[in-house]
Amino acid sequence: MNAANDNGSYGSIVLIGAGPGDTDLLTLRAVARLREADVVLYDDLAGDAILLFANPLADLIAVGKRAGHPSPKQSELNRLMIGFAQQGKRVVRLKAGDPAIFARADEELVAAREAGIAVEIVPGITTPTAAAAYLGASLTKRGVARRLQMVTGHDIDGQLPRDLDLNALADPGATTCVFMGKATFATLAAQLIARGLPAETPTVVVESLGTTAPHKYTGTLQTIANALALVRPSGPCLILYGAALQDVVAAEPLLSN
Ligand SMILES: C[S@@+](CC[C@H](N)C(=O)[O-])C[C@H]1O[C@@H](n2cnc3c(N)ncnc32)[C@H](O)[C@@H]1O
């Protein structure tokens, strides 16, 4: 049974997209919901400065999910979120980028609805569009890149997902954005080249967007995996490849910051 809070209102859950981390890329709606929150459950990837927008009386709880570090199980996180809402609290679940893109919002939406708790999504700027702004590049290009696709490079076991549509991913007329692909990109690139995607396809890695030290590494499908192995970037990385990125790579053909 859901309880009402001191103001007589019932608990709620808002999944907020924090965007890449820059406070001025938050939406006005995100700021409004943060100001109203009683509890904020936030991911590692959301920039800490964003938390300054939260109601000063709110409980701020880190529920980080950075790869390689311990993080609560999704089921525990759902229980925590639902538990606060059932006490009548307005719960914000703050996620990097957009909550509906590779952020397990599906599981949180189901859990909230099954518990009969009102749930809302406030969109955020997803990493590919933040990357386009950082690179000063368009991800689509008339006659060159007529498809934009987002894919995860990381399955539940940490491996490259076995059921990827490699034909789609080897489409030379697409720009492809690979989330969580640092460890598996060498394998993916080899499979794409074997499917006929040119080895010299422009490829860019963007790391730690929205922080004070973002980086980019440029190269080709063939060279970028070696570059990643050499540099071993520690921040979150998005890998983008496709002909639309030709100008970005031509401007800085070598591994660069
Ligand atoms: C769990 S997914 C979250 C995606 C997020 N919901 C979005 O819309 O961008 C985490 C992955 O997103 C990408 N990512 C998230 N934040 C990033 C950042 N600040 N810089 C570069 N890549 C980032 C990386 O591929 C990272 O491994």
UniProtKB/TrEMBL annotation:
It comes from Rhodopseudomonas faecalis. One of its GO terms (biological process) is methylation. Its EC number is 2.1.1.107. Pfam families: TP_methylase. It is an enzyme of class 2 (transferase). GO terms for molecular function: uroporphyrin-III C-methyltransferase activity. Residues 13-224 form the Tetrapyrrole methylase domain. PROSITE patterns: SUMT_1. This is uroporphyrinogen-III C-methyltransferase. Keywords: Methyltransferase, Porphyrin biosynthesis, S-adenosyl-L-methionine, Transferase. Pathway: Porphyrin-containing compound metabolism; siroheme biosynthesis; precorrin-2 from uroporphyrinogen III: step 1/1.
